[in-house]
Amino acid sequence: MSGLSGKKRVYLETYGCQMNFSDSEIVASVMTDHGFTVTERQEEADVVFLNTCSIRDHAEQRVLNRLRELQHLRKKRPGMIIGVLGCMAERLKTALLEESELGMRIDMVVGPDAYRQLPSLMLDAEQGQAAINVLLSADETYADISPVRYGGNGVSAFISIMRGCENYCAYCVVPFTRGQERSRDPLSILGEVQQLVDAGYREVTLLGQNVNSYRWKDPDTLAETTFSDLLAEVAATDPLLRLRFATSHPKDIPDRLLHTMAAHQNICRAIHLPVQSGSSRVLARMNRKYSREDYLERVAAIRAILPGCAISTDIITGFCGETEEDHRETLSLMEEVGFDYAYMFKYSERPGTLAAKKFRDDVPDGVKSRRLTEVIELQQSLSMASNRRDLHSVQEVLVEGYSRRSEKQMMGRSSHNKVVVFPSGDHQSGDYVQVRITGCSSATLKGEAI
Ligand code: SAH
Ligand code: SF4
Ligand code: F3S
To answer: Which atom of ligand 2 lies nearest, measured to the CA of 173?
Structure first.
């Protein structure tokens, strides 16, 4: 079963948010430390891990379909181990091991705080024993594990700086699948940043479910490091290293943070600030802890302190009790802010959440869909308007590689996190290129190096 190298091969497939992609790099690290190699070809895998997402029902259905497909692959490779990691493992727990109910066999179920146990769980699974660990931890941050950056572009990397969430937004499953909020030791973060710089990386994105509630208390000196402090320290590592962060909660974005961004040119001018709804009534039911007015006040602060900063968002349509009036308030807020881009979703009830317990999922599916379409159409025109504003400007683009269509074009991102495509010339991945913008669609800017 083993390859020429004698090593067993693990194939990793990741669903969901950037945190999950970052976690898969931890999984790759744990597995390679125990003698496995990571393969990009599932047909030669000895172990297949799906790192899963529970955020919406659709996300879980995709994974279940994929697991069914893998059962067929296993017929050709008897002995292949199939493991479910991540949020679905945490949410569904032993139910994933019930072969008769699920209609398929899964060998391993491992939650997001148990990845250090993967090698021993593998041994159990290989001996045909149920291998499950879904314990959540109050302090696991994997701070000492160096992620294996498989499949990346060698230019930009994610660094996970905190884990968990305790905000309990009424619709959201994350506090149940990711557990308590905990921050990672800043020294280990700065060490990882330096390693990336030494390896030639040019951009890091600091990750957390609520990245701006990062807070570290030194156990010896009791000195506190806030998110603003950390951002300033990371930015000072190297002026050629770009810095991004995601995701920020609107209740937690003080002026101090905006001033820190303003003081460092290498902190990108882009803030992802999920609003979810433009109606204060809906926001209260969602337990978001801010009103429409609070949100607009923070947007005004961003505009004042960081002129030209891109603002992007997440929106949910059809949350419990959402009326046409509430929906129109979402549309009007979108126009008022003029978001540069947005991720938009139809509300999907998640078992066990506050909303599932307290409210009826009473907006008919057709209405949710129609509202979603309206939100998407409006955002398309706002994105187009945002991109048109960039026409004729010069953007500093960090090159990530060739464009998907052809090697004659390169792609990279502007500070505003917009994808920019331009003729390759003799530019390389990792270069900063000044690009004059000559054209655009709602999704991409096109230009020429100057
Ligand atoms: N921690 C981040 C986002 C986590 S999930 C934050 O607080 O902003 C990413 C997005 O998925 C959310 O911002 C929300 O818009 C959406 N989402 C979360 N739960 C959902 C649900 N039950 N149905 C539909 N969309 C949901
Ligand atoms: Fe979910 Fe809210 Fe936490 Fe974001 S802040 S992960 S939406 S509970
Ligand atoms: Fe999904 Fe878990 Fe991320 S539910 S969005 S993978 S934290």
So the answer is: 1
